[in-house]
Write a structure and sequence with these properties.
Blueprint lengths: L1 H5 L1 H4 L10 E2 L10 E3 L2 E3 L3 E2 L2 H6 L6 H12 L7 H7 L7 H5 L6 H14 L6 H13 L24 E4 L2 H5 L2 H13 L5 E2 L8 H5 L3 H15 L4 E4 L2 H15 L6 E4 H10 L12 E4 L7 H14 L3 H24 L5 E2 L18 H4 L1 H16 L5 E4 L2 H14 L4 E4 H8 L2
Parallel strand pairs: 5-6, 5-7, 7-8, 9-10, 9-11, 11-12
Antiparallel strand pairs: 1-4, 2-3
Helix pairs in contact: 4-7, 10-20, 14-16, 15-16, 18-19
Length: 423
């Protein structure tokens, strides 16, 4: 309850205006891409996956703020029914992006989840298993820790300044992303240290309030990677967790610089050190992973506002800084010959979540699939042939959604795509 108590002032700043329900909540006349399969992508549209599926106040952020107040005031006793509302949230952060009162809604929801765990409310079976599996095997996929680096046949633990935090999903489920990342960095003259001592970043545990094991893996990873100047990430969830959560929880700066692969290649392109020669002749749309784009931008805004003496004036500069972050993947795609780029309607801070985050894909697959089906329709509405993203978890959910929906979209992970286009 201590985390929730610390956020009491923020929770009571919520005026239940309802803006958090929507994308483009401040732009009712926003032009869109029109109607597609019965869905109108125009003006204000729903931005909350759980609210969109269940259509009940409790599943929207505003309902969760009421519940947080009630728990703090002991007017509501947490139980399993409440759990199945609170935990059906992808923690995508769309509500936080829309909030004019700058409430850290994701932090509130995660603190509320942790409070339920502390109160002894039983977690869903699959959610609870995450903590047990990470405790036993250092990953949530029930895979032997010794197999974590089996995808890599080269020399491990290189004596270099830059390490690669691979993450559990790329290590065990979509090894092609890990292989492409390591291979591309070698091509670019930046060999990466691959560490056998890497463990789960803790993201699924932080998101679901299981703090004991989350704290353990956090401390272990900080110690393991502390000898490096830079740590590179291809996983949006790992990047967000280590860049944002670790400093928040430890109260200390990281001993290394966290860099996502997207940042790295964009910087090289801007310096003229990386040029893609091969063509990729397709109509392409881009999906903004919540953890990589919106969460990192929200954290940037939070830190800048903490330093600000005038929110009104400084918010303009902050908006430009956030926009520069959102534009990085779009810049990278613009540097690939042959690409015809088309935007979906909900993009950048208004982006629609793929549905995989916040422990939802594990425990509530119906919500995960409902969300990804919606995003696939939105991608198809652009006329795109290919959907590109840069998050292994998004990639997994899109793969499942494209298969189950019968979509003709081709799916690409950005770094893997670049690897095929660069000799």
């Amino acid at each position: 309850m201590e985390r929730l108590e610390k956020m009491k002032k923020q929770i009571y700043r919520c005026i239940h205006c309802g803006a958090c329900r929507f994308a483009y909540s401040g732009e009712p006349d926003k032009e869109g891409i029109g109607e597609h399969e019965g869905t109108l992508y125009e003006g204000i549209v729903v931005g909350c996956p759980a609210g969109n599926l269940h259509e009940w106040e409790g599943f929207y952020n505003s309902g969760k703020m009421w519940m947080a107040r009630a728990v703090l005031e002991e007017d509501l006793i947490p139980d399993e029914d409440m759990r199945d509302i609170i935990f059906q949230c992808t923690t995508c952060g769309s509500c936080e992006a829309q909030c004019e009162n700058k409430i850290s809604t994701v932090d509130v929801i995660e603190a509320l989840r942790a409070a339920l765990v502390e109160r002894g409310v039983p977690l869903g079976e699959k959610t609870a298993r995450l903590s047990a599996t990470v405790k036993e095997m250092n990953n949530p996929y029930v895979e032997p820790h010794a197999e974590r680096t089996s995808w890599f046949k080269g020399e491990k633990n290189l004596d270099v300044k830059t390490a690669y935090f691979v993450g559990c999903t790329a290590s065990y489920r979509i090894k092609n992303v890990a292989e492409a990342t390591e291979r591309l960095f070698r091509k670019l003259g930046e060999p990466l240290a691959i560490l056998e001592d890497e463990v789960c970043c803790g993201s699924p545990l932080f998101r679901t309030g299981q703090m004991e094991q989350a704290t353990r893996v956090m401390n272990q990873n900080i110690e393991t990677f502390s000898k490096f100047d830079t740590v590179v990430f291809s996983c949006a969830g790992c990047y967000r967790t280590i860049k944002v959560d670790y400093p928040k929880l430890t109260g200390k700066e990281l001993p290394f610089k966290p860099v996502h692969t997207l940042e790295f290649v964009a910087d090289l392109m801007k310096q003229g050190k990386l040029k893609v020669e091969k063509e990729f002749k397709k109509i392409v749309t881009w999906h903004d992973p919540c953890h990589l784009t919106r969460h990192v931008a929200s954290d940037l805004e939070r830190r800048r506002l903490e330093e600000s003496n005038n929110w009104f004036l400084d918010s303009r500069a902050i908006k430009k800084e956030k926009e520069a972050w959102y534009d990085l993947p779009r810049y990278v795609l613009s540097q690939i010959p042959g690409v015809e780029f088309r935007e979906m309607y909900r993009i950048k801070e208004n982006t629609w979540c793929c549905g995989a985050g916040g422990g939802v894909k594990t425990q509530y697959p119906e919500l995960a699939m409902d969300s990804v089906f919606e995003r696939i329709k939105e991608a198809e509405a652009t006329g795109a042939e290919a959907l590109v993203t840069s998050c292994p978890f998004c990639w997994l959910n899109f793969r499942d959604g494209i298969r189950d929906s019968g979509s003709k979209l081709e799916l690409y992970e950005l770094i893997e795509l670049l690897d095929t286009l660069i000799d």
